[in-house]
Amino acid sequence: MLKSVGGLTAAVTLGGAALVAPAAHAAGLTVVEHNTDDPRMWYYRFQTPEIGWNPGVNVLLPDDYHTSGRRYPVLYLLHGGLQDFIEFDRLGIRAMTAGRPLIVVMPDGGPAGWYSNPVSSNVGPRNWENFHIHQLIPWIDANFRTYAEYDGRAVSGFSMGGFGALKYAAKYYGHFASVSSHSGPASLRREGGLVGHYINASSAVAELGGGTVYGVPLWDEARVSADNPVERIESYRHKRIFLVAGNSPDFLNIVDMVTEGQVLAGQREFRAALDAAGIPYEAHEEPGGHFVRPHLLQADIDGVVARLRKAA
């Protein structure tokens, strides 16, 4: 698993001309649109049999990518629910990575895809896990100067994407040396499986046309266990782990209160399991509820650069 796993490439220049990429086919992907006018943020849209529509991907390049000739580590940055691949550009990722020797890949993950291959879908294929792991990563490594190895990759995300990061880092241990979760749930079974049921319900409504990630009325228990961070503790050993949760959600906002309340409780359970296993981590509990904290995203990016193989 420490061998090349690949990647994908994408970037966003909103309003720019859409072109057909020179190398349209790779790893089961067809590039149907792209824009590389911006020197740093490149945008691609792909056709893939794993997804029933054409997902977009942004690839943010280092300032000196076009002149240095160097290879760079890669951060895969995963958006939250009801967001898309442009979300981190809206949040200022360009400024956060200015001067950092790091490629940042920001893919679509669906409005409620939960970075999973669902048990059922009534709207065509929505195999986000297959798209990201088996297609996107190899495509990135084939098309950009990356380190296609364990110490060359990190994965991070917010909310649904924070769960996706924890899941991918454990399930595909040899792919990522660093994992970060910004307000992402880390426990699917606590309180009668409340988070797992929420994943099923949200995916049914916003992603799968009544299908679900884990199955109803009975879960596919093997899938839940394979995806559940607190059941995969040993898979985080020897990784950099960065966790963020809000400890004072808005009690006048029931969605914020329940969402970040479950995130906080689940991350505390996860941290206790890491402590019991003697696995180190960096954790932050901060005032407020369910949102990205830019100063901690910046700290995370700097920590990723420090942990991964240096550009050379």
TrEMBL record:
Question: Which Gene3D superfamilies does this entry report, sorted A to Z?
Answer: alpha/beta hydrolase
Superkingdom of origin organism: Bacteria
Output one GO MF annotation.
Answer: acyltransferase activity, transferring groups other than amino-acyl groups
The record's InterPro entries line, in alphabetical order, gives:
AB_hydrolase_fold (IPR029058), Esterase-like (IPR000801), Mycobacterial_A85_antigen (IPR050583)
Q: Name one Pfam family in it.
A: Esterase
Q: Does this entry carry the keyword Kinase?
A: no
State the signal peptide span. Answer: 1-26
Keywords of the record: Signal
Keyword Signal listed: yes
Q: Which PANTHER family match?
A: DIACYLGLYCEROL ACYLTRANSFERASE_MYCOLYLTRANSFERASE AG85A, ENTEROCHELIN ESTERASE-RELATED
- Protein name in UniProt: Predicted esterase
Species annotation: Saccharomonospora viridis (strain ATCC 15386 / DSM 43017 / JCM 3036 / CCUG 5913 / NBRC 12207 / NCIMB 9602 / P101)
